[in-house]
Queue: 3 jobs
Job 1
Amino acid sequence: MCRSCQTNASMVRSGDGFGCSCAEHSVPAGIGACRSCNATAVVSADGTSCVPRRCQVVAGKFVCRKCPNDFVSVTQNFDGSPMKEVQCVKCARGYKAQGNICVRCEACTCNKDQVVVRGLCVAKSFVNNRPKYEEIVLHPTTLLDVVKYEYLCVQNDTRACRFLANECVNNFYTIDVAGPCRLWLQPKLTLPLALPQLTVDVKTYDRNTGVILPHGKDTVFISVALHTSDGGFKYLRETKHKALSCYLPIAIKIGTDFSFDCEINLSEVSLSKLNGTLVPYLHADEPKSLPVSLIKPDGHNVQRGTWPTSQFGRYYIVHNAVSVTANITNTIYLRTLTFKLRIERDKYSLGGLRVRIDIEAQYDKTLRIESEVITTLRVQHEMPGAGLFRALEIWASVLGVLSLLYAMVQYRSVVRRGGLYLAALPILCGAVADMLFFSIWLSILHAMAAELSTFGLTLPPSKQEEKMIKAFIYTAVSLKLVKAAWVNWNQCRCDIFFLDWSEYNSPWKDAPVSDNSSNWKICSLAKEWSVMQTKRRVSPGYVIPLALVILRIMDPWYSHFPASDGYRWGITALAWWSSYIAVLLSRWLKDRFLGSPASVLPNTCSGVGISLLVFQEEYHAHYVHGRNDQSKELRSTMVGQQASCRIVCSPQLRAVYKQLSTSETAGHLGLNETKQTVLSKFFAAFFERALDGLSWVASERTILERLFDIELTTREAGTTSTLLYDDNEPSCFAVTWWGEEWTLCTLDAMIFSCVYIAANDVLLAAVITLTLWQIMKFLRELFGERNLNQNIDLET
């Protein structure tokens, strides 16, 4: 049980917390009670009684006498009894008042050839031979302390030498020969044995040599030695916390850059370890001192002209500086401590890494009135090349040649089909985008595997390689968007015809033909065609969630890799394509057993008795046969593989088509019908071989033509058109998203990985990819239906 002290008895909690003691300016008054002394009295030296002071009333106020500086106040007699009144007693000769006690004055015992410097007898010759201090940075009292401790350090006083070392570091290794660095700057002086070393010995650590990490080791430990001004020393070897900290010691993982801020409470600096100087060490079997480069608050480097080496060995975190010119106190603190690690492959050790470490300490200053300052610890790596440039040369050359050849063949096919010469630009953009994307991705995967097998760990790419990866990705996305825009624009400008055979062939002999009976059939087929225009073989709505699941599963494995944007992008692309292939295989199995969505359109055409004719280019069309065998008089000229085929139009057929596509031609022929109706009848007659001088031949496409969707064989010219057929799905899907799956899936992969490497947020990448897919789908449906309405002519 705990109880409170009696405040009405002038008692407070004792220092150990287990009892009550008399409050300040109080004396004991029995057991468990105290009483306060009057304002005109003081507590005796033994704390048992109140001794009055000599006071008088001045202007209605009590004014009590204070003892002069050379006097001490006495409250007790020699026998220990309290005095009637406090007496002021002057200290004897050779003593001085210090803390109300007379202590012996050392200066009073100085010889004639000595002078008193801050209470110490110093030889006059030492003071006279010392150079004159020219700078105005040190306060006069601090300069006297420097002279005093310098004299003691010459006599091998370890504490004095440590004080000089701290003052030298606090003044940024000043080159003034009369400053605190005098013993290190004048080589003619005999250096004391207790003098600390302020620079890094090149024999201990050579910047050009560095340290070697053995095979499989990926962490560098940097410890610290703390030197206080009173001679204290402490060597910290191990980190206390796994979290990042702005103070040493610290463990740095190779390839991991980070920055961390810490708040320093200036009111607690004197009670912490921050008021001393620090020496960083490379933690190993034999600790090696690391060099530190200092940057002063004015932004300039420390002058190093008179120092034996440019590598300083000590730095500090907080130092209070007193200005001589202005009566203010500034606080100079460590603003940024930067570790720069340069990693190289060691040629002489098997699978070893050579690490060169540079430490940079940048300082700032602030007024003492500020309670907190911020110190930043930053780690930067200069990594060696991961071999991406060499791997990229190989993959880019191979994939570039293949993509360029395929683009040339594609362009040749487009020109043969009667397409625009402008198609060379989007075709080339798509080929280059695929080459950039897959070459950099394969190079990253190759580099990750090669690093792991060589060094036992995976090093991140260099900064140049990281920039190259981002440049390749952003360029690939930009070029792929050009190709996707061209594909969608080209698909929304094709000519579409619906050939209703009931309008041209009656199911019964001499039966009249109704022109309005086929409206609902054409609308049904047009609706089915509109749905198929934006149907994908693999929907991103299934690929993206599966990719997120794969990335989540890969988290434990991915944590072993360094924090590299390039490697992160490579793993993300790997997860994407893995999910895409998985969804594609499941869709293939589903279509294998349950039927493909591509078979719905031919069945619809056969059900309503309407054929579909779509022109992809000027001389190239796609035909889906819709005639059925319900009437014996109805000639079924398209059976088997020819029911869904391609048409290579002859120049003469295209010339007649152009003539009939104008309204003036229909008027000259005496036809009171729309242009679309005239063209539909013309193509129906073509398939019925009713147009004199026009014919067609059937030919099967070659394996390469079916595999790459290109035209390699030169077809017959003149008045003969060619019907190309194969065993695949209806060729009219070439002008829909179903036939452009490669362009769209690579675009989705590029957008997803591009957003991920830019924002480092996989959920944001998923949302943006899905949003762009829906926006593109909406625009494709909008312009597709607009083009379909322009090509449908219904009489209502």
Job 2
Amino acid sequence: MTEQGSEREKSSNIRVLGAMLRFLRPYRWQAGLASVALVCTAGITLSIGQGLRLLIDNGFAEGASPAELNRALLFFMAMVLLLAAGTFTRFYFVSWIGERVSADLRKSVFDHILTLHPGFFETNVSGEIQSRITTDTSLIQTVIGSSVSIALRNLLMFVGGLVLLFVTNPKLTAMVMLSVPLVVAPILIFGRRVRKLSRDSQDRIASVGSFVGEAIKNIKLVQAFNHQAADSARLGEHVEAAFAVARGRIQQRAWLSTAVIVLVLGAVSAMLWVGGHDVLAGRISGGELAAFIFYAVMVAASVGAISEVFGDLQRAAGASERLLELLAAQSLVAPPADPMTLPEPAGGRLSLDNISFHYPSRPDTWAIDQLSLTLAPGASLALVGSSGAGKSTLIDLILRFYDVQKGAICFEGVDIRQLDPQVLRQHIAMVPQQPVLFTGTVADNIRYGKPGASDEALVNAARAAYAHDFIAALPEGYHSFVGEGGIRLSGGQRQRIAIARAILADPKLLLLDEATSALDAESEYQVQKALETLMQGRTSIVIAHRLATVVNVDTIAVLDGGRLVATGSHSELLQRSELYARWASLQFDDAHSAASVAG
């Protein structure tokens, strides 16, 4: 690695640590108590060596009295009790901080993700994001709640042990010091490799989670196509790839631990040989040698523990980088610094003024090209066109999931880029073609449109969507569990709950993406009537795949390749738009039948 590359890596490490520290700052006093307990326990542990020396030289020495032995033992037990109390305090507060920071980090990442524009999720797999929020934060929790404490404690033990080694016997200490560079070298060499492999391992695990989640979510399709064996084989490939990376990381950590143990214990063995001869020669006492061995083993154990923890810290650094990438992701759709306000009461007027838009991933292709439309408050508009014509893109732009590159979209005369997106969306409700239900009860999903709505308003919305009867027939009525994605309900039932959700929201602007497509004939008739009632007095935009469902709207806009090619009523478009007339002839028996429907 070049010097410049090395500097970049160091800078990255500092940024990672600094970013994690901001999650610790709210809990200064808990961290302070844990630090005090940490210092006290380290000091008491170091004092045990002196207690051991007194016990051997005074309590067990030839001619020592029972009183001296009792005093030595009482001193030793007092230190043990203090050590136990300090360890309890340290463990409790350090573990508490780890759990608290992990919870805060999860919430912070999730809250930030909710603000990102939908385009972000087109290039970032949801399963991997879930892995970062769960697995990576759990790893950081382990490090903060355990590994950091162990590292700091052993660092204090290492420094204190070295000082006491010099005080006890400088000559033997010199031998111990010779082994320190030999121990530090493998930590530096293997530690860098462990960090890279740790990040790779987390990425591989995220891939496994993403694949499993996708397969489970679409289990019916997997089984319908007898794809179990193929998916099992693909998962095996993901798992084996993750295992291969993990094995490399484990191997590097194993070599690190082995090198430290051999070098440290080898130095201790040499020290014992020299110290033993000094005791036999009378140059030091047995208690001094015992204390020295205690401190030497403590220093060696501290170095070994630090080397172990260093691997965990490297893994945490990789996990932190992944989380910080999410926290650093910028939304392309953000509230303006000084947002404008909408006139009250909002009427639902919408205008599209010569707008053009392309997706960030396809900058050379205009999804919407120089399109202009105006909807008066309470007017209804149907968007028709072949697949890829730009119908769904227009809905996304109106909701400000993306910003146009040219022109302007105005709601109530205000450019929506000058509005806080949440303020804009408060006046809009959407019913997608594929209804989206969340894990929970029927009531939870309807109330999603207006969280504070009363039970009476909720039931009225369900009645208006012709959903009350089937909901009441469920085992627990409105408190029935719908399953993941509403799997316990039929497609038509899910759609009517989605419509009830929109009715409860009471929007000024209603967006319908062929909201009756999933219903049988009888339900479609009932819900179509409910939608007609709902659309009265509200500005409504309907994406139409079946022309028979929109023949009564105020205006039909024909889109082709992102451009507006014609507008008018159903009967008008049959006469002056060849494209619309061709679609009508394909959907009705013939052009004459299509015209009769208009009549």
Job 3
Amino acid sequence: MTAVLRWWTDMRSLSAVRLKFLKNHFGRPNGDKVTRWLLIGTLGTLFLIADYVFFYRMVAYLDGLPLQVGEELIVQLLNVVFLTLFAMLLFSTIIAALAIYYVSSDLEFLHSLPMIPSAIIHVRFVQTLINASWVMLVFSLPMFVAYGYYFQVTASYYFYLLMAFLPFVVLPCALGVLGIMVLMRYFPTDKAHQILSFLGLFFVAGLVAFLRFLSPEKFFDKKVSDEAIIGFVESLRVPEFPYLPSSWITRGLTAWTEGRLDISFARLGFLYAAAAGALVLFAWISRRIYLSGWRSYQEVKNAPRTKNKNNSNGKSLLAYLPIEPMKQALIAKDLKVFARDPSHWSQMFILLVLVIVYIFNIMNLPLDNLVLKNVVSVLNIGLIGFVLSALIARFVFSSVSIEGRKMWTLYTAPVDMRSFLVAKFWMYWPPLLLVAEILTVASNHLLQVDAYVMKMSVIGVLLITTGLVGMGLGMGAMYPRFDHENMSGISTGTGGILFMISSLAYVMLVLVLSARPMYVHFNEKFLFKFVGGIEVPVFYGLIVALTALVTVVPMRRGIRALRTMDI
């Protein structure tokens, strides 16, 4: 009894500290947090509305199919949704558990306190559960609300949904945390976080590609056939084994809407029994292996690094480029930092998936008119600019801030801030330009545009890439965050939001200025009307001048900010 009372006391103390932290975080927001919350709230609301409309439309189509085929397909669709959620929760839990149980900076202090280790383990489990599941639950909720609204269920349906969600979420969380504890106990390595992050990104990239290749936009066409809908849902078919938690919650939820409460309560009992068993297993195993695994991880992490004896004395490829030696050294440093941080290069898989999905979208555009294809090719320049803005916000804008607290070493070294920023420009500009031009040439080839539009698109993307990279580097130097704890938080700060707004405005201005020259070209090509004059080169000159302005001015201001900054 004394051990249980002490465990409960420790749990309350740790939970009170966590609640006070959350209260201070949300109760005293600064301007940066308010701006970020408003932006995330707006985008999240729009996504939830679109999610609800799409799923409601899907259920309505399926329910209208003849011979009761739609009813079984709706069940199959719900089963796919729950199975996907289960897999995503498992992956998300593994990533979150590694950071919360092993990497977090306050663990050494917590383990030095006179507390029962199981209290720390269980409080961290609740923290992992919340961190890993709240986003998925919020964004999946519109699907089930749309399902309930279509079938006009009572309020008890939503109560049952919440009751079933609890064990459904606890089960993958317990398995994920238990799996990472076993991994860290018997396979301790300081690369575990990078490996698991890479696997998580690979899973997300594959999921995005799979859902996109299903072409769900065809369901917004009123002329869509029943055969197309059946084929779509059949393509989602997964094994519906009776022992899968996704099958339990699916059958329980659909049975509740049909009034078969005995089946619903039986499936709910399965969920709670499985969750309870997973929690008991987790509590028994974690108490025996967690501290040993944590100590092993600390030993590996704090072990002295051995020098690489295979360093070559030969020249690198950078030595053959017409770049100053100082810039070559800075570029080499940035390349090594980029290669050693999997949070950077592992996202190349996401970029590759986005490129494939982008080209796939162009291939499936319902464009039968040659004039419309050429018009879309012009708008395609703006769309590529928007994609570049997102990539530059993530990589280029944050490139100055990732120097972190070691930025002072550059100030003490014989390095000029102009060379520092210019070196970063030449590191990021070529690969981003290559990606943008591949998208441009591939999409224009699929659209079958003429040579003039192809040439202007290639030149336009070249200018847009140059302007955005210069703007991203300059504004990143004007609004650095050297004390960041999370890489993703750099681009979501005030400076990052200002960059996104400025970059999108620049891309829109380029599109507006290019409208008149393209209008003249299309009149000459398709209508044989000559409506252009001296204004065509004037508009092109304005685009070049605007690009030079957004490239040079932010870079100069960023250099000035770095030179006068107090580190």
